[in-house]
Automatic annotation (TrEMBL):
It comes from Sulfurovum xiamenensis. Keywords: ATP-binding, DNA-binding, Helicase, Hydrolase, Isomerase, Nucleotide-binding. The keyword RNA-binding does not apply. Its EC number is 5.6.2.4. Residues 6-283 form the UvrD-like helicase ATP-binding domain. Residues 284-556 form the UvrD-like helicase C-terminal domain. This is DNA 3'-5' helicase. InterPro entries: DExx_box_DNA_helicase_dom_sf (IPR013986), DNA_helicase_UvrD-like_C (IPR014017), DNA_helicase_UvrD/REP (IPR000212), P-loop_NTPase (IPR027417), UvrD-like_ATP-bd (IPR014016). It is an enzyme of class 5 (isomerase). ATP binds at A27, G28, A29, G30, S31, G32, K33, T34.
């Protein structure tokens, strides 16, 4: 056990050895906050003798939770009696609701809906109520209400402006609808948990006593509801240890409340505060850039942070003409690293907004570079995967009209939109679910509203669903084989332009399902569905390739070689409505501090965005980070040149490179401009 403490510095050790009472570990990026937390968990269990079942460790993403679990378990004695509960807030809510949702008069066979399902539902309610407002806006308003514990009735009563009245009406219907169908959205996972705990004092007490030691990573990103939930959970003992960095609070737009961390010591009177001031992750130039940048923010606690690693290579700037040149240049640099034998898991490219990932994807694909894209179009958001999930949902709950409508004509059964609407109306009039109506009508209990052909198709659908539901009673592995046989979803996509990719995805899903069954033979379909609904945008199949992801998704992670793209005014910082410069700067700080030794910040002169090409200026953050006083020295031109490249020169026009020789930071190029050969330095031409 001494050995796990030996790996820590004195402040980290002090935090680990503090056992009872509230504690705040406040420190900058890469100072070992997460390491301290995992070591503390191992210390509590392995040294102090706390039963792992009495601990609860929370964080924000599944990936972070998985990494922490792995680290903590490595530090623990071989045979811990019970793995400690270390998960995301949402997963905790799910587990809690499984046991206690009955207290709200609901069954625990609920289905979690993700943000996409939520929008679909809202869209249909908005249509019904003839409301013409942006669906994402409605969704985020409702999310805010839930996170502020405001019920639909209260919101309806308080709404004054016409738009907000409409949103309130939608909220009322939405909540009715999800309760009727026993659905639970992401916000409910926490909101209902809070509600149950706050309304049942005995249960609150019992739960708090059960989780004697609670720890939270990335505490700066908790919102008001999470704070209140933590207060209830720790109410019996106050053994709440939170770690965070006010400079890394990047979820303000989603309701995170930075005051939670700023006021923690006031809220918990006997709080012990520990500061960590050594950064073990990054070399000096990287850390200096991050520190210099974040000093431009005014609302911060202010921290000292010195680099343990010391000197290292300068932060590089990569200037390109446009996004495709940028992608090409990065692909080239990445290839060089891979050729040198760098582990692909140590290379990442980060972007501020999703739209910028597309050009990278294209460039990397062209260059034949493998990559995993995290936080873009997620696996589970792809149409074919949604179809599969909808099928499984219908099997789990045939009264889920939404899912049924999605798959009723996939693969094609000749049931068009008009027929579906007829069926929906008939089911509505009969006051039963769509599936029930279809089932009864194919058995002749209702007069036929559709043609003979369609009725036969529906008969077959009912037969398939019933058969598959029966198969669910037995082994899930066999079930999925039968599912593949009966529901020929691959045939549906086979003829499409991108059919090949979609079929691969479908196979991957089946494989994933089988794997989940292998790992947990007792798995039920409901559990499987709820687990995949909880997959956050960091979760993807782990492969040994480089990573492209959003800065938000990269929180807490670290990479030896890092590229950040889009350092341009408007993209990063994001400007315009809803943008908050201090939060943008914190995002800049998070991005830069993901790098260990090699950081390249990229910017372009123009980008194609929202249908047109725009000239853009480089980001103010480059200046604020102290990186562009001396542009000529630090800017490396975007590409390496080689024989055969086409280049453009201001005066000579377009030519082909015949020879390229490295000369300092530049290339000396021999270029053939339509028979006119010239020797020119690479900074005077641009690749095309
Ligand atoms: P972030 O703010 O980005 O979440 P963090 O403060 O949680 O960062 P960690 O991820 O825990 O930092 O640690 C950063 C790196 O420093 C890790 O590679 C970790 O192993 C290393 N590290 C932390 N503490 C020490 C130490 N005392 N000695 C050596 N290495 C350390
Ligand atoms: Mg961390």
């Amino acid at each position: 056990m001494e050995t796990i403490l030996n790996a820590l510095n004195p402040s980290q050790r002090e935090a680990v050895e503090h056992i009872d009472g509230p504690m705040l570990i406040l420190a900058g990026a890469g100072s070992g906050k997460t390491k301290t937390l995992t070591t503390r968990l191992a210390y509590l269990v392995g040294e102090v003798g706390i039963d792992p079942a009495n601990t609860l460790t929370l964080t924000f993403t599944n990936k972070a939770a998985a990494e922490m679990r792995e680290r903590a378990l490595k530090l623990m004695p071989e045979k811990v009696s019970y793995p400690p509960l270390l998960c995301t807030f949402h997963k905790f809510g799910l587990l809690f609701l499984k046991f206690h949702i009955e207290k709200l008069g609901r069954s625990n066979a609920f289905v979690i809906i993700d943000s996409d399902d939520k929008k679909r539902l809202l869209r249909s309610i908005a249509k019904e109520l003839k409301v013409d407002l942006n669906i994402s806006f409605i969704a985020s308003e409702i999310s805010k209400y839930k996170n502020s514990l405001l019920s639909p009735e209260v919101v309806l009563e308080k709404a004054e402006l016409p738009d907000y009245k409409q949103i309130a009406n939608i909220y009322v219907k939405y909540q009715e609808n999800i309760e009727e169908n026993n659905l639970v959205d992401f916000d409910d996972l926490l909101m209902l948990t809070y509600k149950i705990l706050s309304e049942n004092d005995a249960l609150r007490k019992e739960t708090s006593q059960r989780y004697q030691y609670i720890m939270v990573d990335e505490y700066q990103d908790t919102n008001e509801l999470q704070f209140q939930l933590l207060e209830l959970l720790s109410s019996e003992h106050n053994n709440l240890c939170v770690v965070g960095d006010d400079d890394q609070s990047i979820y303000g737009w989603r309701g995170a409340n930075i005051r939670n961390i700023l006021e923690f010591a006031n809220n918990f009177e006997t709080c012990k505060t520990v500061k960590l001031e050594t950064n073990y992750r990054s070399t000096e130039p990287i850390l200096n850039a991050a520190n210099t940048l974040i000093e431009h923010n005014s609302t911060r606690l202010g921290k000292k942070l010195t680099s343990h690693k010391g000197a290292g290579q300068e932060v590089k700037l990569l200037h390109s003409l446009d996004e495709s040149m940028e992608a090409k240049a990065i692909a080239h640099e990445v290839q060089k690293l891979l050729d040198e034998g760098v582990d692909p898991n140590e290379i990442a490219v980060l972007y501020r907004i999703n739209a910028l990932s597309r050009s990278l994807e294209e460039g990397f694909t062209k260059a034949g570079l493998g990559f995993k894209l995290i936080g873009g179009m997620r696996f589970y958001e792809r149409a074919e995967i949604k179809d599969l999930i909808s099928y499984l949902r219908v099997l789990s709950n045939p009264h889920d009209d939404f899912s049924l409508i999605r798959i009723i004509n996939k693969p094609k059964r000749g049931i068009g939109k008009a027929s579906i609407e007829k069926l929906q109306k008939a089911a509505f009039d009969a006051k039963i679910s769509l599936f029930e109506y279809i089932k009864k009508s194919v058995h002749g209990e209702f007069p036929a509203v559709l043609s003979k052909k369609i009725t036969t198709a529906l008969e077959k659908l009912v037969e398939d669903i019933t058969l598959l539901q029966e198969a669910l009673e037995n082994e899930l592995g066999n079930f999925i084989t039968l599912f593949e046989e009966r529901i020929k979803l691959k045939d549906h996509y086979a003829g499409m332009v991108d059919g090949f990719d979609r079929i691969l995805n479908i196979d991957e899903f089946y494989g994933y399902f089988r794997d989940a069954v292998l790992k947990n033979p007792d798995l039920t379909l409901d559990e499987f569905l709820n687990d995949i609904s909880l997959q956050s945008d960091q979760d993807q199949v782990e492969e040994d390739t480089i990573t492209i992801m959003s800065i938000h998704a990269a929180k807490g992670l670290e990479f030896e070689h890092l590229f950040v793209i889009g350092l341009e005014e408007e993209f990063f910082p994001l400007l315009g409505e809803g943008s908050n410069m201090e939060e943008e700067r914190r995002l800049g700080y998070v991005a830069i501090t993901r790098a260990k030794s090699d950081l390249t910040l990229c910017y372009v002169d123009s980008r194609f965005y929202k249908g047109r090409r725009k000239m853009i200026d480089k980001s103010r953050f480059l200046g604020e980070a102290g990186l562009i006083q001396d542009t000529s020295l630090k800017i490396t031109k975007s590409s390496a040149f080689k024989k055969g490249d086409l280049v453009k020169h201001k005066i000579f026009g377009i030519g082909r490179v015949q020879a390229a020789n490295k000369s300092g930071k530049e290339y000396k190029l021999l270029i053939n401009f339509g028979g006119n050969k010239k020797e020119i330095l690479s900074s005077f031409v641009q690749s095309i």
